[in-house]
Amino acid sequence: MKTGKDIAWVYNRYVGDLFTYGTYLGFEGEVVKDAIHDLFFKLSADQNRLNGISNIKFYLFRSLKNRLLDLHKQQKYDVALEDMDPLAEIPFNIQVNVEDLLIEREEQMQIKAEIEQMLTALTHRQREVIYLRYVQEYDYKQIAELLRISVHGCRKLVSKAILSLREKYGSLITFLTLLS
Description:
Elements: H1 4-24, H2 29-45, H3 56-75, H4 100-103, H5 106-120, H6 124-135, H7 140-147, H8 151-169, H9 171-179
C-alpha cells in the first residue's frame, strides 16, 4: 500500500463483508461500524502495515474479530482481563442472504427458509465455521487461525456440522452442497 487511495479501495471493497461478519458475531451494528473504523484508522496511520500481507481479506476479518473482542472485554470492566478466556465461544448468528433475482421466485424463498431453519440446529461455533468455509470461502488453516483452534479441530468442526445437518435434513444437504 502506497497511498490513502489504496486504503480507500480496500475499505470500499471489504466494508460490507466486514460489517456482515461483525453482526453475525452478535455485535450491534454501531459497535461493528466503530470497530471497522478503528481498524481502518490504524491502517491509514501506518500504511506500511499492509505490505507483505498475502490475503488482505483474511487479515481484515481477523483484525475486526480481535477488535470486537477487545471492545467486548472493555465493556466487561468488572472482570479482570486475566480471567477472560480468549477461546470462549461467542454467539454467531447468521442469516442467509439470497440474491434479489432468486428472492423473486417462491422456490428460492422456500430454500432460504429451510437453510435458516437448518442453521439454527447448529451451535454458534458450527454456524460460524460453516459461514467462514462456505460463504467466505476461507481454507481450513485460515479458519483455524481465526477461531484459534487447530486445523484438525477446524476440519472436525466442519465435519460435525455437516454430519449434524445430514442427520436432521438428509437429502436437502446433498442438494445444497451441489449448489456451492
